[in-house]
Amino acid sequence: MLSLKNIFRITAFLEGISYILLLFIAVPIKYFGEDPQYVKLLGMPHGLLFIAYIIFAIILGSRLQWNNKILIKVLIASILPFATFVVDRKLLKQEA
Question: Residues with Cβ < 8 Å from 6, sequence gap 6 or more?
Fold first, then answer.
């Protein structure tokens, strides 16, 4: 059975991948290739993963009694490319 922490780690990984694909593949294709199809294709899943990441971060932060500084760093990681991977490596693996 998956714990909440593992579900959050999976969500963080998928959110990070979807964000990178959106920023570095879909958006350049939209503007340089004049084809918005990929942004439309990746936008909705990324949005749902982003919302799930935020919700799980708040719930997990409450359960693990993160202080506000840690919670804010985890939440900011959702808007910085590659940062969700850093959160997983530096914070979540330590608490295994």
Answer: none
Beta-carbon contacts of 18 under 8 Å, excluding residues fewer than 6 positions away, are 42, 45, 46, 49
What global pTM score does this model have? 0.90
Residue 94 has pLDDT above 80, yes or no: no
Instruction: Look at residue 81 and give its three-state secondary structure.
Output: coil
- 3-class secondary-structure state, position 22: helix
Question: How many domains is the chain partitioned into structurally?
Answer: 1
- Range of the structural domain that residue 80 is part of: 4-92
Residues 92 and 8 sit within 8 Å (Cβ to Cβ):
yes
* Packed helices 37-63 and 68-76: angle between N→C axes, nearest 10 degrees: 170
- Please report which residue ranges of 1-96 form alpha helices under DSSP H: 4-21, 27-32, 37-63, 68-76, 83-87
Angle at 4 between CA 19 and CA 59, to 5 degrees: 80
Q: How far apart are CA 54 and CA 35, in angstroms?
A: 30
